[in-house]
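Continuing the batch. This is chain 6 of the set; chains 1 through 5 are on the previous pages. Same settings as before, nothing changed between runs. Recording input and output for traceability.
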Amino acid sequence: MSPIRYCRPAGSRTSGDDGAVADDDGYALLDAGDGRRLERFGSRVVVRPAPSVAEVPRRADSVAWAAADLRFDRDRGWIGEREPWTITLNGVSVELRSTEAGQVGVFPEHVLAWPWLRDRLATRPGAEVLHLFAHTGATTLALAAADARVTHVDASRPAVAWARRNAELSGLADRPIRWIVDDALAYTRREARRDRRYAGFVLDPPTFGHGPAGTRWDLRDELPDLLAACAAVAEPDAFVLFTAHATALTPDDLATALETAFGIPDDLEAGDLELEASSGAVLPLGVAARMIRR
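Output for chain 6:
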């Protein structure tokens, strides 16, 4: 079975994506190990925590790690130049900011799924796509650039404002994107009552969080209801891309959940979400699945 680098296959589901982020020189994973990741975002080299490689030694030499412009320490926070900066990933421009949680506003592993999404949209101009847990909108903008009509949903008002800023930077502010600040599950259920239908779905839910009225969100518990809500508004030939950074979920868990919600599809792939560094190190980041409903 051939690996797909954003999604290393498990079980009998296969694919053939390659392992590099083709990104207009906007991003590169340089190394990962000893609980850290060494990344280049445009002109800046950044060091951030990476618990999934806590027991794996670094491969790059210490000089490369010491040359970082910005680094995040769980005890001391960010050290280095913290002014926002902009990078371009496959034609999408995004503003990066050093957040208090140690994030920068983009998940580079998502870029590896963009060719698959563009292929799904190539023969469906104007297709309606529902992007849930859409964060700062890089994938929303990749979809919009591929002529999709996107509904971007995130419960964080600052994240949606950041996504709209990225749309302006990318020259895509005039594209048909609906910017929605709302709970993903509640919004999708309301869309069913409004009898709306979507040709595609992109989901990147958190492992844990807070739902409406402060209720606790646990992806393992909420996954069946979330996918059932999407299936209720899905067109007969809808496509789904699902990524999760949850270590407790396996690729087979995702595949089974998709089959339960949408029925047995003609095309379903599931595997480990990961990036490969230029040093040869592999950074595990969770699990992913993608499917086409027939």
